């Protein structure tokens, strides 16, 4: 059953289509968008081996002239050096201002393909075709594109909205279990920040750690409600001037953990799980929410098979220092998104280094 969700913006509105089997019909989905004839498909080698030839065949059957560029899988390759390789392919195939980039892959591919599209010839169009749960419910929607700096995640980037986000739930059947769990972190995030009913439905599920244990009905609910939450927030605040900051729940400490472990030890979703546990504990210390809500959040993160403790060997002072490079720092104060109840969060700078240190110490000791 197809679902279409609108992302309504002052300019460049677009749709998120959730349509089983749509990847094999990619060309037909792109035909009505008014794109130029030349397309560059961006993917990583593993995804391309599985889906690339079929996607290109569908696009060519629809009349598009397609080239492709592959970038290595993994957050540590999300660099300006990888972007340069995309520019090289764009130049070799003479991509024009009417051309478009198609991102076929997870969040890393989408972020880099989008940034290349935002900056090639000062901006060409692009389409998101996410293949991971994390990209489907979060990274592909909202127009955030970019790459990492050696000293911080996503410090280099641009807002560049896609023309379409096309989600084919059937590709989740081939997603590695660890990547599925990573996506569940973002789904749980939506439950905490926005959708208490979604949170309760996740609590009622027997298992959330592998896709095969999640019923098709619950999977459709997860995709639809997560995308609706993201689309609603982005529609209200396209460039993170206010409300959109709530989407960073769990990401403040999460990004620090990712960065300090070289993007090798934990993936993005695992880091967000750790970050949500930390944010919940900070909220408890500040009396913003109650112990039962905090327990429910931690239990749901554990049910999804995600870590709730800091990786061994991390220096707590390094984490606190890294927080100062976070994009949400204002006047030197780290601003956290913290929960007040399941379904509601606030932005605050009341989390002092002492409170953060206390929470991190407890998470390290229990590791």
From TrEMBL:
- Main localization is cytoplasm
Reaction it catalyzes = 7-phospho-2-dehydro-3-deoxy-D-arabino-heptonate = 3-dehydroquinate + phosphate
Q: Which GO terms describe its biological process?
A: amino acid biosynthetic process; aromatic amino acid family biosynthetic process; chorismate biosynthetic process
The entry lists its GO molecular-function terms as: 3-dehydroquinate synthase activity; metal ion binding; nucleotide binding
Residues that hold Zn(2+) according to the record: 186, 251, 268
What Enzyme Commission number(s) apply to this enzyme?
4.2.3.4
What is a single cellular component term in the Gene Ontology annotation? Answer: cytoplasm
Please give the CDD domains that the UniProt record associates with this protein. DHQS (cd08195)
Q: What does this protein do?
A: Catalyzes the conversion of 3-deoxy-D-arabino-heptulosonate 7-phosphate (DAHP) to dehydroquinate (DHQ).
Supply the PANTHER family for this chain.
3-DEHYDROQUINATE SYNTHASE, 3-DEHYDROQUINATE SYNTHASE, CHLOROPLASTIC
Q: What protein does this entry describe?
A: 3-dehydroquinate synthase
UniProt organism field: Thermoleptolyngbya sichuanensis A183
